[in-house]
């Protein structure tokens, strides 16, 4: 911030941090939903048994019916966790 003072208006430098939606988080459809479905339907996910299959199916069937307090899709959180586990834990 100190470096930017004098170059950028203080109102920009000192403004509160904001939230911007990640498209897949707010609008889980198309390629984003396909990605989530692929991750959550994978053999690795099924064998891990971390999530109840009936809930995963429910979230995938109607992602915008199940949202967080920021109106993001809960299925996005599950898919990201599972994807991270596949990339960083399963490879060990």
Describe the structure.
The protein starts with 9 loop residues before the first helix and ends with a helix. It has helices at residues 10-13, 23-26, 30-40, 43-48, 53-61, 74-88. Helix 3 (30-40) packs across helix 6 (74-88). The radius of gyration is 18 Å and the shape is elongated. The protein is an all-alpha fold and 92 residues long. The protein has one domain. The chain is built from six helices and no strands. This is Asparagine synthase glutamine-hydrolyzing. Residues 1-86 form the Asparagine synthetase domain. GO terms for molecular function: asparagine synthase (glutamine-hydrolyzing) activity. One of its GO terms (biological process) is asparagine biosynthetic process. InterPro entries: Asn_synthase (IPR001962).
Look at the helices and sheets and give the structural class: mainly alpha
> Portion of residues in helices?
40-55%
Give the low-confidence spans: none
Beta-strand residue fraction: under 5%
What summary fits the major beta sheet? none
Distance between the termini: 40 Å
CA radius of gyration: 18 Å
Judging from the principal axes of the Cα atoms, what is the shape? elongated
How many H/I helices? 6
Order of helices and strands: HHHHHH
Number of domains: 1
Beta strands, count: 0
- Give the mean pLDDT: 89
What is the multimeric organization of the chains shown?
single chain
């Amino acid at each position: 911030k100190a470096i930017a003072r004098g170059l950028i208006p203080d109102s920009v430098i000192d403004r509160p941090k904001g939230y911007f939606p990640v498209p897949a988080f707010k609008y889980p459809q198309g390629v984003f939903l396909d990605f989530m479905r692929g991750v959550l339907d994978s053999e690795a996910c099924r064998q891990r048994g971390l999530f109840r299959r009936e809930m995963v199916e429910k979230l995938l069937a109607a992602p915008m019916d199940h949202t967080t307090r920021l109106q993001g899709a809960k299925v996005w959180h599950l898919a990201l966790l599972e994807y991270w586990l596949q990339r960083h834990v399963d490879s060990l």
